Here is the input.
Amino acid sequence: MNAIIDNEITRRKFVKTTGACIAASMVISPAFSAILKSSGTKKRVAMVGTGSRGNSLYGKYLIEEYGDLVEFVGLCDINKGRLEYSKKYIGVDCPVFTDFDKMLQTVEMDLLMVTTVDATHHEFIIKGLNKHINVVTEKPMTTDEKKCQSIIDAQRNSKGTLIMAFNYRYGKLFTKLKEIIDSKEIGDLISVDLNWYLNTFHGADYFRRWHGLRDKSGTLLLHKSAHHFDLLNWLIGSDPVEVYANGALEKYGKNGPFRGSNCRNCEHTKDCQFYWDITKNQGYMDLYAANEKYDGYLRDNCLYREEIDIFDKMSVLIKYANNVEVTYSLTTYSPFEGFRFAFNGKEGRLETQEGIPWRDTAPEDQAKLHEKEMDNTSHTKQEHKYHEIVTQRNFEDYKRIEFPYVRSGHWGGDKLMFDEIFRGISVNESLHHPANVRDGSMAVLIGIAARKSIDEGIPVKISDLTDLVPKINKWA
Here is the structure.
């Protein structure tokens, strides 16, 4: 029997029909009404943390796309050199601070954006909430259960709102998966398999940076996997209740055959497959290399340095309150970048994949993939390829949807997330795109529980970590 190709959603027809549907369904979202109703013609925005993520996504992009709605009233960072560079790069004329408390005391703001080292997120989130300021924080919300509880407590006592910048759940591909799951086409979910692959360019880069240190990133189970865990929580529509995990450091760090101070000053550049020449990236040279003298941070640090203490391979089993079970893995030195997603339901199966070279008709340059994901200048461009989504009901043939390919701007999610935060525009409120403190907590609690499980060799209950009680239905 021949496979059924769902011609109702071809690439050409999708652009026409979905564009019209989205326009018709756009409504003003109540999720961020506190921000929308702030005083003044423009929202007064301050940012703490002026690394590449803050400067690009929360800085330059925000000014270019939402300059009619926001104005920067303060930038803060411990590195004064990066501050001055960031001010020029973002294109703003506002006060800069190396002392966050001083900025908080002297600058009137409607919104604080937190884009610092992960382990410090809680400090700025809590101080902002304590002053009843709205806060947007980059993932992960925090890195351990005590900090998580402190943030939960601060939110309960604040008139401000904590917004989690979970842009993955806004991604167009993932939104389509959510719609299919919620339609019950495959019946009630029973299990999910998610395998995420970071290639030898993107994956390796985490180990060059501060992310390779547990006391700064909480491990990649927090820094990277928080994206994936939130995506799972959102798609499943329930809270996690128990986690068991395995993990190890077997490739990077002390496992390396040699090591140096950093790539620019290393004698092993001809022998090291991971050698990275930062001098070819002028932006990084100006932001990081030129300002090492202020805090000693090396952007091109050695990924074989012995101080690295995070995992480079991880597998996690998650049980949910609604009895859905998840198997998840994260690989940090794959030859290709991508993922495999599979959802098993009582009436069928849904799956998709991205980046598997032998499945793609037009394989991409592995060195450029992450750069493309972060690029917000081309999120509206149409690609000459598609995401393949396959559903198959029990006792029936499979259906294949050729879903329009969007990779830039986190699968198109960045713009949709910021549209909701700053313009109050929601594509479909029933999909629950906006993420709050509970969403941020549940995502990091899976990572915290997984790390604890690996360290201690035991399953960990989510309810033992904070006072949040897992719900069968997240939105009940």
